[in-house]
Amino acid sequence: xxxxxxxxxxxxxxxxxxxxxxxxxxxxxxxxxxxxxxxxxxxxxxxxxxxxxxxxxxxxxxxxxxxxxxxxxxxxxxxxxxxxxxxxxxxxxxxxxxxxxxxxxxxxxxxxxxxxxxxxxxxxxxxxxxxxxxxxxxxxxxxxxxxxxxxxxxxxxxxxxxxxxxxxxxxxxxxxxxxxxxxxxxxxxxxxxxxxxxxxxxxxxxxxxxxxxxxxxxxxxxxxxxxxxxxxxxxxxxxxxxxxxxxxxxxxxxxxxxxxxxxxxxxxxxxxxxxxxxxxxxxxxxxxxxxxxxxxxxxxxxxxxxxxxxxxxxxxxxxxxxxxxxxxxxxxxxxxxxxxxxxxxxxxxxxxxxxxxxxxxxxxxxxxxxxxxxxxxxxxxxxxxxxxxxxxxxxxxxxxxxxxxxxxxxxxxxxxxxxxxxxxxxxxxxxxxxxxxxxxxxxxxxxxxxxxxxxxxxxxxxxxxxxxxxxxxxxxxxxxxxxxxxxxxxxxxxxxxxxxx
Length: 501
Fold this sequence. Notes:
- Helix content is 50%, strand content 12%.
- By secondary structure, it is an alpha/beta fold.
- The radius of gyration is 27 Å and the shape is elongated.
């Protein structure tokens, strides 16, 4: 895979200066078009062998383009904060907005490659990790991101000569460390692991570009030309959307997961107060359990029709919790900052750390519900969102987050009754808007969307709990009981039993 990058590619200084003059002008002109249009962001991954010129090339890119619209993030060892969250959290936080270029010195490839070389990650685990990376990059590209992945290569002799040259120059000697020579000893292992990683992740959406790093001028000019060509092509082509999931066939008998709910279930006041206290106390104990505090986090997600009782259910939950340990995230229309990022970015920002709870009042499912029904996004966007959401929740669950998803369902008649009550009650009037009344006209469309959502995204790690919510007392107790049961399941010992600690 690296043969073409060991041919001794070079370019003389005169030719380099001649070409760079034209390249710089074209890069700047294209960059300003990118900034003005703000149609998509650009991610440039710079990876490769030690001493292959990664830092020098990044600096060159800054000198050729307007640095105000470029950011560079160097990923090293995980911080304490990053260790308490899913692996990809740190990378989501670093994504550039539309119109900007983000350069990643090291990336989501660095850690798995290093762990595989050290022998800390078996091949099967590496391949699983690479599958997740492919899904992540496909999501970025589908969101419109231009992803350019560069691997700077040196032969073993070339790397050794490069390190010695850097070491002999007083201006660059500081860049060569004992670790640099230690990594030279693992050169063969790096080529084996990197070769496998590059082959598995060399996708049509985000291919690898291998560049020989021996000659500074050749390396920099090659990268500059590729970046320019990719930017010009992308600006010219625009974004092409292709649906990635077939529509679900509707059942011919009109039965679905919502129509089969028994909305007549109720709890009288005495039963409600007794069970509410029981499960609130149980929840408080579970959230103080050392196994939760030190190893787990909790993410609660509430969806449902307007006036279904999401806020009331949330208030009964947080009564049992320490206010310092949870955050309620109400989701509305995205801000300008959020629209400049991939769709899931604003939700990754609120992923809870170990021992904490995040409560979403509406969520990422807006893409396959309100955005689908109201035509706020394309069909291709909401069709591919199912897989992207499943991947997101899978990452949360495998990182130790207990994901509990609730759909609170009420009948159309009950919704109408609650709407009228809100209109007639002064301190509730703020809850009812013209949009609520308008949404009622699309009740059937939302039912179809909800049924599709449940079918496609109720997984073993993050199943949906459908709550019969015509009776608020019944709904609130069912929600609390479900959370407790899910936490107890997550905290079971090796014998499959939950024991209080």
